[in-house]
Amino acid sequence: MTVLVDAAIWPFEGRKWAHLVSDTSFEELHAFAEQLGIPRRAFQGDHYDVPTDYRDRAIALGAESVPSRELVRRLRTAGLRRTRSGSRLNTSAEHRRMAT
């Protein structure tokens, strides 16, 4: 299981928020979010936004704290990064296969 969380630096409604992702699967991410009490409707296409107190609980449950750039890099490498339109971004390996 590899659930990742970045620093809670994104301000919204008087709180600081972080991103919670899995670099393995969305199923793993949804199961982890459920353990935290986060409803599925809060899913943002490839991540959940979590406030500081949820971030701390996520780490206590085994989420790995990583810098934002590392989080995005690992999400892309896993092929789970989504664009705003909802489509997946190609990983480097997928892009190379498509070009040949």
Structure characterization notes:
- With 100 residues, this protein is α+β, with helices and mostly antiparallel strands.
- The chain is built from four helices and five strands, in the order βββαβαβαα.
- It has one domain (3-95).
- The protein has helices at residues 26-36, 52-60, 68-77, 92-99; strands spanning 3-5, 10-12, 15-22, 48-51, 64-65.
- Strands 1, 2, 3, 4 and 5 form a five-stranded mixed beta sheet that branches.
- The longest helix has 11 residues, at 26-36.
What is the domain total for the residues? 1
CA-atom Rg in angstroms: 14 Å
Distance between the ends: 33 Å
Oligomeric state of the chains present here:
single chain
Shape, please? globular
Total number of helical segments?
4
Q: Summarize model confidence as the mean pLDDT.
A: 85
Main pleated sheet: 5 strands, mixed
